[in-house]
Amino acid sequence: MIALAGRKITWAGLTPWLALAALAATWGRELPGLLAALVALVLCGAVLAAVHHAEVVAHRVGEPFGSLVLAVAVTVIEVALIVSMMISGGGAKAATLARDTVFAAVMITTTGIIGISLLVGALRRRTTVFNAEGAGGALATVATLATLSLVLPTFTTSRPRHEFSPAQLAFAAIASLVLYGLFVLTQTVRHRDYFLPVDRSGGVIDEDGHAERPSLRTALLSLAFLLVALVGVVGLAKVESPTIESAVASADLPQAVVGVVIALLVLLPETIAAVRAAARDRLQTSLNLALGSAMASIGLTIPAIAVASVWLSGPLKLGLEPVHTVLLAITVAVSILTVVPGRATLLQAGLHLVVFVSFLFLVVSP
Q: Which InterPro entries match (predicted)?
């Protein structure tokens, strides 16, 4: 740590501002190879800093509020990025950008993050436990939101295939906000105990270890650093996108690969935080992070693009292609069978990870 004006500045306090400075210096520019590598290193540092500050905030406010803070913060910034890219982009890419990004986020969180968390928990404890009531409610909300926003547009008849009419889009936006708000109310007020980690006997754990909680001032500073770090993470991911696009084009891969890579970068903070929680035998926290991020991605993106559609001149395609609809159906089915018992083994981890790898493979080879 560095001493400055009598105060100690740690790497976690310095890195978010370094990421913000790198973002300001590189925004809108195409980066040469060496500079792109340096920006990638700063991006990784910002991810680690975001996870650190999210854990400080979570320790102060407790679960499930801590998971909610990280999931909502990163999603709000991600949604702002998506909407700005759609308004400034135009063309076929803008028409499918929201759909591709939201679907990638859903698959990464429900199969990738959950699969890795289950794997870590099962390797350490053989059988990992969680609260089936909370995880089941979160999964049901994700499945409903995904169906309303990403599956139904493929089958409606008011507009060309994959598109909602203005009235249908407005309904989907309102329904998404209502469902997301209802879930947050349930998670944080009405049935908070459903979303707390449980021990081997099924008892609720309403604390995070025995360490002393950080002070309010420390938590507020970490919250500010968290927001700065997340702006850096999402912004630098966008800055790196031209380099990623060039690499994808050189490898003759589909354009959708770019969106998946950017989504993977943006979701790194949740991934690391979820894996750390699983390693501490707090799988419920991992599920809160993963399913909360998926839920926020849909519940906040759809209303945002509904408003942004006023300025969008081209079509807005939200409906999934058949292969993606099948993947979503398999994901929901596997997730239900994972959640219902309230405990999971290596088998469930393998199922989620195989579906995740299948998603990645079909993006590369559709």
A: Alkaline_pH_Ca-Antiporter, NaCa_Exmemb
Query: How many structural domains comprise the chain?
Result: 1
Q: What is the pLDDT of residue 201?
A: 59
Do residues 49 and 76 touch, judged by C-beta distance below 8 A? no
Q: How many CA atoms lie within 13 A of 144 on its CB side?
A: 17
Is the bond preceding 64 in cis, omega lying within 30 degrees of 0? yes
Q: What is the pTM of this model?
A: 0.82
Q: Which domain holds residue 22?
A: 2-364
* Tokens representing residue 274 in the block: 């979820």
Question: Within a 10 A sphere around the Cβ of 217, how many other Cβ atoms?
Answer: 8
Q: The dihedral of CA 50, 52, 53, 54: what is its sign?
A: positive
The length of the chain in residues reads: 366
- Reading the block at residue 325, the tokens are 């609809």
Tell me the angle at which helices 268-279 and 283-308 cross, rounded to the nearest 10 degrees.
160
Q: Which of 325, 363, 333 minimizes the C-alpha distance to 351?
A: 333
For residues 194 and 131, the answer to whether their CB atoms sit within 8 Å is yes
Whether the CB-CB separation of 26 and 35 falls below 8 Å is answered with: yes
Amino acid type, 221: L
Angle among Cα 198, 202, 206 to the nearest 5 degrees reads: 35
Looking from the CA of 154 toward its CB, the CA atoms found within 13 Å total 15
| DSSP per-residue string spanning 261-279 | HHHHHHTHHHHHHHHHHHH
Q: Hey, what are 137's tokens?
A: 């409610």
Amino acid at 14: L
Give the pairing of strands 7-9 and 128-129: unpaired
The answer to whether the beta carbons of residues 51 and 272 sit under 8 Å apart is yes
| Helix, strand, coil shares, percent, the chain, to 5 | 75, 5, 20
In the predicted structure, residue 344 carries a pLDDT above the cut 50? yes
Report the alpha-carbon distance of residue 189 to residue 290 in Å, rounded: 20
pLDDT digits (tens, 9 = 90+) for 89-104: 555 566 777 788 889 9
CATH code of 247's domain? 1.20.1420.30
Cβ 312 vs Cβ 97: under 8 Å: no
**pLDDT tens digits along 117-165:** 999 999 988 888 888 888 999 999 999 999 999 999 999 888 877 888 8
